[in-house]
Amino acid sequence: MEQVWDNLLTNAIRYSEPKGKIVVTCAREGDYAIVSIPDRGIGIPEDALEKVKERFYRVDASRSSQSSGLGLAIVAEIIERHGAEFEIESELGKGTTVTVKLPNS
């Protein structure tokens, strides 16, 4: 799971406004731990939200030359192996929030 947090936090930092604030929240809901990582960046178009979980998919190649397009695909694979779930909500011009739902052990 270390790779999941590294990828999600790196994305939040990379796509946030300069000197932007990222507030990670954690909560317990029933049998699950919920972790949300928002950014206040440019957002992801609605038609790309599911595609960003595919290997090598990049919303816009001009966004970051440092990205291989593997980050969220790796996150999806690791999360699935742990019996967890994650969702991505985004609004153009306002940012993106990734929420991970982990079963309590």
Automatic annotation (TrEMBL):
Coiled coil stretches, renumbered: none
Biological processes, Gene Ontology terms: cellular response to phosphate starvation
Topology of the protein relative to the lipid bilayer: Multi-pass membrane protein
Keyword Oxidoreductase: no
Catalytic activity, reaction form: ATP + protein L-histidine = ADP + protein N-phospho-L-histidine
Top EC class of this enzyme: transferase
InterPro entries in the cross-refs: BphY/WalK/GraS-like, HATPase_C_sf, HATPase_dom, His_kinase_dom, Sig_transdc_His_kin-like_C
Keywords associated with the record: ATP-binding, Kinase, Nucleotide-binding, Phosphoprotein, Transferase, Two-component regulatory system
EC number: 2.7.13.3
Protein name from the UniProt record: histidine kinase
Species this chain originates from: Planococcus massiliensis
